[in-house]
Design goal:
single chain, 94 residues, alpha+beta, 3-stranded antiparallel sheet, two-stranded antiparallel ribbon, 3 helices, globular
């Protein structure tokens, strides 16, 4: 059985941040992310030991920035991150 988010894709590719991704390359992290609880927050360097984090699906860089595309995302209770685009495209309840 195909995942519901896959049914919204054309061919075997999906666009994330303007880049084409093979659906098969992101299917596993998307399915994993659906099992997590996510909360939208700003990424703040004072709350982290690093200067950035990456989206668990597309590896987009999240860091302390006023630009929302990089400066906020979704965090799980396990301190994993999703960029807003991946969350809204694959995880957000429809």
């Amino acid at each position: 059985m195909q995942a519901l988010w896959y049914l919204n894709m054309t061919d075997d590719f999906v666009t994330i941040h303007g880049d084409q991704w093979k659906v098969e390359d992101i299917q596993e992290p998307v399915e994993w992310a659906k099992g997590e609880s996510w909360k939208k927050v700003a990424w703040l360097s004072v709350e982290h030991n690093d200067d950035h984090d990456h989206c668990q699906v597309c590896w987009w860089t999240l860091f302390d920035s006023e630009e929302l595309e990089n400066g906020e995302g979704y965090i799980s209770g396990k301190h994993n991150w999703l960029c807003t685009e991946c969350y809204e495209q694959f995880i957000k309840p429809k």
